Amino acid sequence: MSNQGIPENPDLKRLDKDVEVEIFDAIRGPGEGNPVLPARLRPEDSFCFSCHKDIPCWNACCHGADVTLTPMDILGLSRHLGIRLREFLTEYTLPAIWDKANLPVAKLKMSGADGKGPCMFMVEEGCSVYDARPVTCRYYPLGLASVKPKGADHKEDFYFLVKESHCEGHDEDNRQTVSDFRQEQGIDVYDRVNRGWMDIVMKMASWRSLGGPYGKDLSTQVKKMFFMVSTDVDALRTFILETKFLESYEVDAEAVEAIKTDDEVLLSLGFDWMKNVMFNEPTVSLKEPVLREAISKARENMGAT
Question: 226 lies in a domain?
C-alpha cells in the first residue's frame, strides 16, 4: 500500500479547500510518475481490466511489491496457513512505518536479498494463497478514498483507477462496474472488518499532508498500542480481558462475551478504542467513576480547585 504521488494529483487536490480527503491507496508502491487517474469512480461506473495467466505481465506485480497488510489480511492468511498470528508475523512480515501516516504497520516479505524478488507465496501457477490474498491484491487496479465535507457528520467513499506502466491488464476487453469488481474480488468483507483501521490510517495521512487539529505526532506508547491492535488479536484479547480495561470502559456484557471468541468483533472494539485514544472520538466511554477521577486529575494539573 502506498500513497506516493497522491497529494500532487490535481483533481484530488482541488477538493482540499472544501472537504477532508482521506485516501486509502490499496496498491503496491508505484514505480514511476503518478499512476492515479483523476476521475472519481462510483460503484456503478465501469472500467476495463483483467488479470490472467496468458497476459504478458502475468506475475510481474508480485515481484518486489510494497504490500502493507491490513488486520483482516493478517487474520485471513494466518487462518489459511493454519498458524498462530505471531508465527505468521515472524515468518512472513516485516515491521515498517507507513510514512504518510507515520504509523507502524506490518508489510509482506518479498524474497531476495534486496527484497525485490517474488512474493513468498508466489508459485509458477500464480498465487498459492489466492483465496486469502491481501486486500492490496484484491483492490488492484482500484484505490479507495473517503470525502467528508467540512462540517458534515458522514464520509462518502469513492474509487479511482490506477494505471502502472508494467500492467497490461487495462488493455483487456473486460468491462465491469466497480461494484461487480469488488464483489468478484471479495472486497466487501475485508473493508467491513478493516474499516476502523482504515479510518485511522486515512485520517492520520490526511492530517499530516493537509494539516488538522490533531496533526501532531503520536507518542511511542500509542503507536505500539496501534500496532498491537492492528496485527495481533491474541495480544489484544489478553489486554482487554486480563487488565483493567473492562473496569475502565463501558462495554456491554454481550460484547464482552463476543470478543472472547470473535476476532472481527474484537478488532472493531480495538479500533473504536484507538479512535478514542488518538482523536478523542466518542467511540468508547469511560465508566463514570473513572471519568470523574480523570477530570479531577486534569483540574489538579491545571491548578484548579
Answer: no
